[in-house]
Amino acid sequence: MAANRLERLGGATRGILATAGLAARFFVRLCVLAVGALRRPRLIIDQIHFVANYSLPIILVSGLFVGFVLGLQGYYTLQRYGSEQALGLLVALSLVRELGPVVAALLFAGRAGTSLTAEIGLMKSGEQLAAMEMMAVDPLARVLAPRFVAVLISMPLLAALFSAVGVLGGYLVGVQLIGVDSGAFWSQMQNGVEVFADVGNGVIKSVVFGFICGFTALFVGYEARPTPEGVARATTTTVVASSLAVLGFDFLLTAMMFGT
User: Fold this and answer.
1) How far is the C-alpha of 72 from the C-alpha of 91, rounded, in Å?
2) What is the pTM of this model?
3) How far apart are CA 51 and CA 254, in angstroms?
4) Which of 120, 129, 219, 228 lies in disulfide reach of 139, CB 3.0 to 4.6 Å?
5) Which residues touch 167 (CB under 8 Å, ≥6 apart)?
6) Contact 85, 188 (CB under 8 A)
């Protein structure tokens, strides 16, 4: 009995290590091919339209409502200390540092990430990728690399739009609804938010999350079993793995950027 358990443990460990090695090789190759994909801007533009434009409505609507909530909760919290004039600073820092990149990445993984995984998985199950290989066309260079570059470009833009709309939502609730002074709202934000220390770090986070979401979606779709059940399971795996990786790396990046 103990020998069987040890054998199963060893097999599971070997499988995890093999998958990690395969993922590492896939990531390196994808990054190398992404540089060459820049010579095909039309493919990248088409994929930006697919992953970014179709994700834009949920990003904007979610950002607006997150701004509404921040405006309400921030005002009621700051009011206890007589600092409600700092509402604009609270909303802006919360969005550009943390909520903008993280929530945008989670929404992107659920909307565009699953679409990419399903698309690649269906191409594999339909033997389209195998047909490309038979014609001496590298599917990673022709299909996956432009999509990876499009995700890297789209993620910072979507995170910036999420933060901008969130600030607008905080302004509408804090200034127009509750009655916080408009000049204090914008001046506190302007004086307290630093371009490189706050906005720049948020951009770095969004780029890292773009690597995570893009790589996870493409790798899981490329390695999916070529069956309807395999593609369905791959889309679920993409959402779970991307979300957990985003939250884990967010903690590490925050500790490195803002830790003392």
Assistant:
1) 10
2) 0.89
3) 27
4) 129
5) 67, 88, 91, 92, 95, 189
6) yes
